[in-house]
Amino acid sequence: MQTVKNVLLGNEKTLSRKLQELFLTWYLEQHLSKERVMEIYLNVIEFGPGIYGVGSAAHHFFGKSAKDLTALEAAYFASLLPSPKRRYVHYCKGELAPGWDRYVRRLLKRMVEKGFVDEPSLKASDAPLAFSRDKDALPEADCQRSVKELLESWQEEERRRLREAIARHAPHQLDRFLPPR
Fold first, then answer.
1. CA gap 100, 83 in Å, rounded
2. Which among 143, 49, 51 is positioned nearest to 95, based on CA atoms?
């Protein structure tokens, strides 16, 4: 479903779009392997502000290609979803907050339990996660300010869309659900 949403359809929330999504999902499942669908998904999803695809994300966050990611780095990418812009703050700081580090390591242990990662890879992930912040990277304060501005614009856009949807379908309820600022 996510692959269809991200690649083939827009963000509108209508019954016709939902039906298109169902049909296209069924069609993809009939004609592509799960591995291929996952490959497509990983190459189009957003991992941070303007960072699309696991290849670009691997180079941006860790200075390497996706095939060279460690198990811990892959678990970090899994932890970014569904809110990569909000979680970009870890990259701005240059390290994971202690609570988020524990969360990423729990994800990694679950990956081992499910058989996606082997024990030696888990043992090799004892070191702290190290981001590759090159000399051109924004200073931490500027990076965090940029993320904050992006989040605010995203929230404002979501509020605008919600206001339009309510105005279209229940205009008499607009002030009840979205009071004027």
1. 14
2. 143
Those residues with Cβ within 8 angstroms of residue 119's Cβ, 6 or more apart along the chain or in another chain = 112
- Residue 119 CA to residue 133 CA, distance in Å, equals 29
Q: What is the pLDDT of residue 36?
A: 87
Cα 152 from chain centroid?
17
Phi, psi of 161 (to 5 degrees): -65, -45
Structure tokens at 94: 């240059």
Closest CA relative to residue 170, chosen from 162, 160, 181: 162
d(CA 142, CA 137): 10
Q: How many Å apart are CA 72 and CA 128, to the nearest integer? A: 9
- Unique residue bearing structure tokens 């309510």: 166
pLDDT (0 to 100) of residue 106: 94
Q: pTM, whole model, 2 decimals?
A: 0.70
pLDDT digits (tens, 9 = 90+) for 55-88: 999 998 999 999 999 999 999 999 998 888 778 8
